[in-house]
TrEMBL record:
Belongs to the paxM FAD-dependent monooxygenase family. Gene3D superfamilies: 3.30.9.30, FAD/NAD(P)-binding domain (3.50.50.60). Keywords: FAD, Flavoprotein, Monooxygenase, Oxidoreductase. GO terms for molecular function: FAD binding; monooxygenase activity. Residues 11-379 form the FAD-binding domain. Transmembrane segments: none annotated. It comes from the Eukaryota. InterPro entries: FAD-bd, FAD-dep_Monooxygenase_BioMet, FAD/NAD-bd_sf. It comes from Sphaerobolus stellatus (strain SS14). The keyword Flavoprotein applies. This is FAD-binding domain-containing protein.
Amino acid sequence: MAIDSPPLSSAKVLIIGGGMGGLATALALARRGFTNITVFEMASKLTEIGAGINITPNLARLLDRFGVLNVLQEEAVVIRSANILKGTNDEALSFVKYSYMEKDFGYPFFVAHRTSLQRALIVGCQQSGVVDIKLGVSVTGIDLENARVQICPTAEREVSTTTEWIQGDVIIAADGVKSATRALMLARSGIKDEVEDTRQASYRILVRREQVLDKPELLELLDGNQTYRWIGPRRLIMSYPILKHTLFNIVSAHPDSNFAEAPSTSWTTRGSKQRMLEVFSDFCPRVQSLLKLVPDGEVCEWKLRVHAPLPTWVDGRTALLGDACHPTLPHIAQGAAQAVEDAAVVAIALSKITTEKDIHKALRIYQLLRKERAEFCVKEADANGREMLLSDEEVAERDKRFREASKDGGANPDKFVDKNTQNILFNHDCEKIAFERWDELWESEELST
Ligand SMILES: Cc1cc2nc3c(=O)[nH]c(=O)nc-3n(C[C@H](O)[C@H](O)[C@H](O)COP(=O)(O)OP(=O)(O)OC[C@H]3O[C@@H](n4cnc5c(N)ncnc54)[C@H](O)[C@@H]3O)c2cc1C
C-alpha cells in the first residue's frame, strides 16, 4: 500500500486524537511509507455520535488514494440532486441536478454515516500494519521543546500520579476544537486561547426506515438519492439518507438557547424533543412529521464553535491539524474534508525531508500549503450560514435568486450547491499542489529564518 519508503520512514510520529483528522493522518503517513505511528485517543472506544457526513469529491479523492473509498462505499449513498425548500411551506426554492459531479470533479457526491467514514479510516490503519491506536489513553502534557507527550490512562486521569512521558520525533495534535495543544502553543506566544461562541446550535438526529414504512411521503425521502435543505427564518434543516438508505439523517442549525441549562463545561447536551419541536413549530408538515418520529432521549444538541485564525499551527516539531486549528461551522460541509486534506499534506511534507533537523521546516511548509485554504473554508461556511439563516424580512431578494438559479449547476445563493464554490472546494487536489509547490516553498525566503 505504501508509495515509497521515505528517508525518515522510521521517525516516531505521535498523533494526539483519534477523530477523523488523527486517523486520517495515521493512514496518510502509513501510505507514504512511515512505519512508526502511534495514535493516542482518550476515549476507550472509537465511537462517533450517530449522524451523517457529506463526503464531497475532494474528500472522496483522498479516501480513494488512501485505498479506503471502497470500504466507505459499502455503506454510503450517492447523492444525485439537491433540494432547497422553504421551511415554513415546503415550497421548492431551488433544485440542482448533480449530473456534472463525476464529470467535473472525478467523484460522485456521497453521504455516509459518520461511523462509516471512521470505519474506513480504521480499516486502512489496521491493514497498514504500522499504526498503533492506543484507546483510553489521554495526553495530559506536551513538551513542545522536545517533542514529548505525557500520557495517562483516561480512567485514572483524575486520580493517577503514574504518568509516562513518550519521546517522539514529531507530534501531530489532532485534538479537536477544544485542543489543549493549541492553548499551550498560543500561551507560549502570550496569546489567550479563546474559542468563539457562534450563538448557533445544531440538533443531530436519525430516523429509521422501519419508522416510515407506512408514510409514503417520508419513505420517498429515504429511498431517494437527494439532499433536502429546508430553510426558514433564522433556522435550517439539512437531511439525507445514509447507511444504504436505512437511516434518514437530520441536522439543524438554529439560535442557541438551550445551553444555559447545560453544564457550563458542556458543548453537547441531550436535547429535549419537546424543545426541538417548539424550535421548528412553524416549519411545514413534512418536517414536523420527520421530527416527531425521533424517539425521546435520542435528540443530541451541539453548540457550534469556531476560532479566529491562528498566528501559527506549528511549534518546534509539533503541528496542529483539523478542528484543532480551523474549527468550522457545518454550512458547507468541509470540516472533516479539510482535516483529511491536512493529513494528506502533512504526510507529504514529512516524506520529503531527509534529516530530522528539517522536521520543523517541513511542518511550516505544511502550514503554508494548508492554512489559507482551510481558513477560506471556515469563512465560506460562516458566510453561507449567514445567508441561509436570514430573518423573514430579509429573505425576499435571496429567495428570488434561488428561484432563478439553474437546475444544472451554476450560481446559487446556497454556496453548498453553488457551482463556483464547488469548483474551488471539490477540484482542489491538495496532494498535487503540495508536490508542485514543494521546491518553491523549500527555497522560499520566508522559511529561511
Ligand atoms: C453538526 C455538524 C455537522 C458536520 N457535518 C460535516 C459534514 O457533513 N462534512 C464534513 O466534512 N464535516 C462536517 N462536520 C465537521 C467535522 O465533524 C469535524 O470538522 C471533524 O470531525 C474534525 O475532526 P478532528 O479529528 O479534527 O476533531 P475531532 O473529531 O473532534 O477529534 C478529536 C479527537 O481527539 C481526542 N482528544 C482530544 N484531546 C485529547 C487528549 N488530550 N488525549 C487524547 N485524545 C484527545 C478526542 O477524544 C477526539 O476523538 C460537522 C460538524 C458538526 C458539528
